[in-house]
């Protein structure tokens, strides 16, 4: 199951896994474009992972501070 649009919480992922879903993808990207820049895969056996994941193919991600550095 793919989840995107809001912050993915531990409770939500637990509910999805309890419904029998084996794998959850947390997709993250700028809401202005409704595209995804990063993805994190969570497996039922491992549970929730608090991360936005890694860049998807042909994408770079830059983490900046409040000064843009």
Report the order of strands and helices: EHEEE
Cα distance, first to last residue? 35 Å
Number of helical regions: 1
Main sheet record:
4 strands, mixed
The strand order across the widest sheet is 1-2-3-4
- How much helical structure, as a percent, in the residues? 10-25%
Secondary structure: number of strands: 4
In short:
The protein has 69 residues and is of the alpha+beta class. 13% of the residues lie in helices and 23% in strands. Strand 1 (2-3), helix 1 (10-18) and strand 2 (23-28) form a beta-alpha-beta unit.
Describe the model.
By secondary structure, the protein is an alpha+beta fold. It has one domain (2-55). The chain is built from 1 helix and 4 strands. It has one helix at residues 10-18, and strands at residues 2-3, 23-28, 38-43, 54-55. A 4-stranded mixed β-sheet has the order 1-2-3-4, covered by helices on one side. Strand 1, helix 1 and strand 2 (23-28) form a beta-alpha-beta unit. The longest helix has 9 residues, at 10-18. It starts with a strand and ends in a 14-residue tail after the last strand. The model has no long low-confidence stretch (mean pLDDT 88).
Blueprint of the fold:
Layout: E1 2-3, H1 10-18, E2 23-28, E3 38-43, E4 54-55
Parallel strand pairs: 1-2
Antiparallel strand pairs: 2-3, 3-4
């Amino acid at each position: 199951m793919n989840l995107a649009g809001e912050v993915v919480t531990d409770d939500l992922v637990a509910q999805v896994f309890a419904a029998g879903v084996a794998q959850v993808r947390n997709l993250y990207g700028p809401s202005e474009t409704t595209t995804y820049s990063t993805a994190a895969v969570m497996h039922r056996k491992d549970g929730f992972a608090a991360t936005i994941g890694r860049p998807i193919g042909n994408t770079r991600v830059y983490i900046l501070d409040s000064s843009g550095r």
